[in-house]
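User: Please fill in residues for this 260-position structure.
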């Protein structure tokens, strides 16, 4: 059994060996680690990794990255996972983890000249649901929707994050616009199938709206353009009444154009 756990989320690490190098890859949050049999290399790498993703956290006794025992660093990091990377309520990535991963995948897809898609999801009229049923019911609703999204984002490199109070976002590396739309549509139908009532008479159920954006990244552009495209697509879906998937593609240097 694999005894090595991710210092981010405590899920098992998967080992990848190629002719160039050996590294470990988290099965849940997709962070790449060095070969952890080489402890000195791992400790040096963990210092860089920690400074990149945990810039605001200063634990007592010098921090886990300065530990001389690798297992000790893993143990401390497990205590930090809910504070640093995972949204405690929904158990998906926090927004800043999403932003770091998007930057990483943007660079990787630019190098490979492969497509990168994002799916922005918003719960329709969720403020009304919250006012009607209260915060506890809203929390349970968000948890159910998050689990539905996690089921749809099934590829190892996909990442689901909480983007706002009632918004989620998905990074889909090596996924074209058509595939991203399929993911969004699967989630949309799945949430409707949950039949979460939005009023006491149960005459209407919770629905979701989606903005999908896809591009082959380039070093001359920023990942922000992909997020802007997804936000514009989501806004249009909401303007049309919600319960819809709207897709855009950054297909020209001059801007974003709609997919027919």
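Assistant: Residues filled in for all 260 positions:
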């Amino acid at each position: 059994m694999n005894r090595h756990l991710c210092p981010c989320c405590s899920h098992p690490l998967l080992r990848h060996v190629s002719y160039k190098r050996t590294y470990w890859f988290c099965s849940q949050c997709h962070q790449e680690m060095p070969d952890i049999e080489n402890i000195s290399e791992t400790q040096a790498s963990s210092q860089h990794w920690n400074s990149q993703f945990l810039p605001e956290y200063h634990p007592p006794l010098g921090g886990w990255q300065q530990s001389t025992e690798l297992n000790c660093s893993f143990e401390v990091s497990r205590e930090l996972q809910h504070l640093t990377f995972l949204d405690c309520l929904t158990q998906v990535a926090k927004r800043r983890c999403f932003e770091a991963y998007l930057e990483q995948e943007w660079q990787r897809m630019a190098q490979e000249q492969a497509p990168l898609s994002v799916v922005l999801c918003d719960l329709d009229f969720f403020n009304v649901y919250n006012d009607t049923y209260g915060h506890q019911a809203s929390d349970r609703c968000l948890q159910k929707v998050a689990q539905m999204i996690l089921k749809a984002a099934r590829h190892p490199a996909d990442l689901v994050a909480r983007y706002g109070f009632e918004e989620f976002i998905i990074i889909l590396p090596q996924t074209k616009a058509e595939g991203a739309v399929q993911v969004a549509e699967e989630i949309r139908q799945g949430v409707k199938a949950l039949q979460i009532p939005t009023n006491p008479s149960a005459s209407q159920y919770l629905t979701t709206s989606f903005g999908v954006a896809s591009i082959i990244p380039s070093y001359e552009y920023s990942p922000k353009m992909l997020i802007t495209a997804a936000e514009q697509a989501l806004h249009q879906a909401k303007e049309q009444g919600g319960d819809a998937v709207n897709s855009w593609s950054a297909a020209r240097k001059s801007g974003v154009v709609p997919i027919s």
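For context: The mean pLDDT is 77.
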